[in-house]
Amino acid sequence: MKVIVIGGDGYCGWATALHLSNQGYDVGILDNLSRRYWDSKLGVDTLTPIAPIQKRIKRWQELTGKTIDLFVGDITDYSFLSQTLRQFEPEAIVHFGEQRSAPYSMIDREHAVFTQVNNVVGTLNILYAMKEDFPEAHLVKLGTMGEYGTPNIDIEEGYITIEHNGRKDTLPYPKQPGSFYHLSKVHDSHNIHFACKIWGLRATDLNQGVVYGVLTEETGMDEMLINRLDYDGVFGTALNRFCIQAAIGHPLTVYGKGGQTRGFLDIRDTVRCIDIAIKNPAEEGKFRVFNQFTELFSIKDLAEMVQKAGQAIGLKVEIDNLDNPRVELDEHYFNAKNTKLLDLGLQPHYLSDSLLDSLLNFAEKYKGRVDKEQILPTVSWHRK
Amino acid sequence: MKVIVIGGDGYCGWATALHLSNQGYDVGILDNLSRRYWDSKLGVDTLTPIAPIQKRIKRWQELTGKTIDLFVGDITDYSFLSQTLRQFEPEAIVHFGEQRSAPYSMIDREHAVFTQVNNVVGTLNILYAMKEDFPEAHLVKLGTMGEYGTPNIDIEEGYITIEHNGRKDTLPYPKQPGSFYHLSKVHDSHNIHFACKIWGLRATDLNQGVVYGVLTEETGMDEMLINRLDYDGVFGTALNRFCIQAAIGHPLTVYGKGGQTRGFLDIRDTVRCIDIAIKNPAEEGKFRVFNQFTELFSIKDLAEMVQKAGQAIGLKVEIDNLDNPRVELDEHYFNAKNTKLLDLGLQPHYLSDSLLDSLLNFAEKYKGRVDKEQILPTVSWHRK
């Protein structure tokens, strides 16, 4: 089965491309390499020394005999996208290819506009290319749990049945996203839902939680296959960032009280979730939504777990409660459902001491590459 | 009070700008005149011979002594927008300045992408300009009843209180828009809601129904002030289009069974609703939503009303049930609330025989300008 991974040079995309290749799919990577470029422009870098995509793919072939086709270009360029898909002829399209950082989208007006235009137009182009040439293909699209915000009721998977004034309907779950990036994912979800309805396309929106970890079975095979690991204030996410901070003796940066509760998952589960979604495609005309996380944690709890794990290997780990640069509740109800992927067979890697140990050791190994100037958050959600 | 009307050269915008000027507001019009340009490109034209915006404004001043400032430019050009607002210093910003046709957005990929980028970026730019320079100003933004789609439960005004698994919250009403244009309005609503929340801006989203009629107290003063009246398959909307079809002896074009029920309002109420919203601004940080329509009608009912009114003045009026070019239910539950504007004092002009008479006579007067080739819908929502 032919699967194209858009954004296959990124953190989730690279791990997924290799996993799918290892599982026997015929994999292509389409990527504009923009994450590497944005890193350069912001002066940040992954903790890990990632190889150029061409060398990564070559090494993968040397190690496994499996080839991955590479298409370097931008999906907001419709003629490039259309030609690439016609050449590759995908049966499933996995779409990670978006600007995925909330702080990046909040830097200023230009970054907000860029994020929304880039993400919305890229996804619209994919939908039109599917309509024209691949109406039977299955779109597996990365959404985010952040589309829901933090409502005071349970979060369902994409839809909610509402009884109101004696009548009942199942409607898209209300969205309260918390950044211009998260908003772009909400826009995408609405656009994809509509395209499925009018053109009979099939799509799965994976509302993913915060991903942690770095090694997968495949990326761990060889240092040339190593995945990126972001720790900076713009692209770094909670648990990964905390482990790197612990390794270099920097206080863990908790925003506000740390009562923000979110869904989390191990990157080894991300790659399995994509595989599960592909193996169980959405029906024709259906816009299906899975909540893709395995556990709920508060930021405070995670910081304390990293502190404890760090202390166990002799690190001195402090926790700093920074003024929250974001506008969000730091204490709230949060109960999100995640049974759909479990029902399809996902066997989660729950967060464990051994994972934290391994991540801390990994961070220790590369800590010489850390630029301490990049750790603190510099982007504010506030007007003044 | 200084009010800038973005899109003040359009159908609703022009009528509103004059009404606000007549009410004593200090009015500016910001418009890129793109509707006139799109008409040229599509080869369509308003039934009525509209004067250039500069002449319209000059005539208004001659008749009333009231001046309206004119700023010709595009709000997707941030430096133009920002400079214009700094020069005019608005206390309220009325935003009609978007691509507003569902069929236009469905012509092809380019028109879908254009509609979403144009509308979303324009609104984002307004939000950033307000954040930078006019955080106290009140944004009065035109949304659409089409954001809600046709759910099987009552439609509330922007928000719905949901009880779920023993808990309760009031959340944004779920959106099921039916075109890439309607989707752009949903994207706008989410973006504006977020900006109000994080920056403390104040905004009113007016989810307007289908507007009919052409004369207002102000635009009827002089032929040089005449408003546009669209009858073509791309920009023409249900009731106005039917009256023009009746006047020229063309069958009324009902899509499918005509059981589609929508909210409608007289353009004389549109201009009053804007005035009411401005006079009663949203609180700081609040994203307020009003459903702006006065009556619900099915398309079939409207066609029959026009048929009857036409026959009463001696016209022979047939009704044609065309294959529906859109993907939408043509029989469905529809019950939308509209009490918020009524509570603030709106006194509706309900659809009456005399309005239909006047609209039919108006259409008769200009029927020599009709291009019959432009009447039938040519844009399809369907894949094949």
From TrEMBL, chains A, B:
Show the Pfam families listed in the entry: Epimerase
Q: Outline the extent of the NAD-dependent epimerase/dehydratase domain.
A: 3-291
Q: Name one GO molecular function term.
A: UDPsulfoquinovose synthase activity
Keywords for the protein's UniProt record, in alphabetical order: Hydrolase
Q: Transmembrane stretches, by residue range?
A: none
Per the record, the domain of life is Bacteria
Enzyme Commission identifier(s): 3.13.1.1
According to its UniProt record, which protein family does this protein belong to?
Answer: Belongs to the NAD(P)-dependent epimerase/dehydratase family.
Q: What is this protein called?
A: NAD-dependent epimerase/dehydratase
